[in-house]
Amino acid sequence: MKHSMVELIRTKRDGGALSADELAWIIRKYTDDVIPDYQLSALLMAIVFNGMTVEELSAWTRAMLHSGEVLDLVAVDKPKIDKHSTGGVGDKISIPLAPVIAACGIAVPMMSGRGLGHTGGTLDKLESIPGFNVIIPPSQFESQLNSIGVVMVGQTETLVPADRRIYALRDATGTVVSVPLISSSIMSKKLAEDLDGLLLDVKVGSGAFMKTVAEAEELANTMVSLGKADGTPVTAILTNMNQPLGCAVGNANEMVESVEVLRGEGPADIRELTIRFAAEMLVLAGATDVEAARAQAEESLASGAALDVMVRLVEAQGGDASYIEDPTKFEIARRTHVIEADRDGWIETCDAYAIGTAAVRLGAGRAKKEDTVDPSVGFMIDAKIGDHVVKGQPLATVSYRDGSTLDAALTLATPAWSIVDDETHAPELVIGAIT
């Protein structure tokens, strides 16, 4: 072979840099099943520990982007704007947001991922709708964007195949938390969409991969720079992920909550971020008045236009749209357990990482890449930071299938809440923005 994978792993392990040619070779040979999972896993771990140079990251992202087909959406006669989250617990914002933007006349070619580590995945949530197909042919992709204004899919076998495979491998090998790997994964997918603009939701806190604002800023700046190098305008919004977003953590129950938002209801934090992100995306599409953009997004919810787009989206991708019209049809595990407050006081922490990891133990996520997700299990959060509770008051209700998974989940989830005597306050949702 042109290169030795063992030697390339050693180079990266020892802090060296790989050339653009070597990185392109790795991506090509892994996609062609020449390089096995165990060798790429070793390289990924070396990247986690030693990082990548600017030149390496650019070459790695470019190689992933061109590992398969790249979309050509020149025939779509609307601005093409997408949004991506770096991953959070209870983060279902993309699901109500995409129909809102489509209802405002913008095309949203949204290519999403599955759950990664302790965080949920948009595709897993959508697949809790019976029949919903997250893989569609390129011809449908373009026609659906023109007719409905939104597509919500995963990578096909031919579109950014390297990222699709590496994404699953990272989830199962403890190599998720890495600025180069996160940024290249996100941007290779997004740049393959032939976008006119991209909004990034970069999460910060216990339930995020970036635990500090400094780490989140590094990731945001890296992705904004990759976008600029490609000629794609990118805005990154840093948002708080120290506690779950909304009340639902799971898959089917997060779909129910998403539909509630599309009906103009739902938790205040989900509604606020949906409108805030919608306004930012409309600005990327050319709007000059942010407040007018917010009003337009709010009207799409109030009028039912966004909900109608969601129904049409589900129908177009083979799903049973009656679940959107009647979300009580979503299957939620019938066995429940209530986590109760052990004292009176104010909620100081509602640890998103602990709750997200507990949801994975229930079966809402994957411990290894071959695992099947159970959409029916999860949490409904009853008390969050800033709430006052009394002893015995519910903090969360757990929906589960069997006692062994419940026990494993409770070991992690029960300590997620801390209660103090002094009054606490809910954290700010938005931390900052980078363009």
Walk me through this protein's architecture:
With 435 residues, the chain is an alpha/beta fold. It folds into three domains: 5-51, Transferase, Pyrimidine Nucleoside Phosphorylase, Chain C (Transferase, Pyrimidine Nucleoside Phosphorylase, Chain A, domain 3); 81-327, 3-Layer(aba) Sandwich (Pyrimidine Nucleoside Phosphorylase, Chain A, domain 2); 330-420, Alpha-Beta Complex (Aldehyde Oxidoreductase, domain 3), CATH 3.90.1170. The protein has 17 helices and 13 strands. The chain has helices at 5-13, 20-31, 37-50, 54-65, 94-103, 122-126, 138-147, 161-173, 179-191, 213-230, 252-262, 268-284, 290-302, 305-316, 322-325, 352-362, 403-413; strands at residues 81-85, 108-111, 150-153, 197-204, 234-240, 248-250, 335-340, 345-350, 378-381, 388-389, 394-400, 417-420, 430-434. The strands form four sheets. It has a four-stranded mixed sheet, with helices on both faces. It has a four-stranded antiparallel sheet with strand order 6-9-11-7, with helices on both faces. A three-stranded antiparallel sheet has the order 10-8-12, with no helix packed on it. Helix 10 links the parallel strand 4 (197-204) and strand 5 (234-240). Helix 3 (37-50) crosses helix 8 and helix 5 crosses helix 14. The longest helix has 18 residues, at 213-230. It is globular. The relative contact order is 0.14.
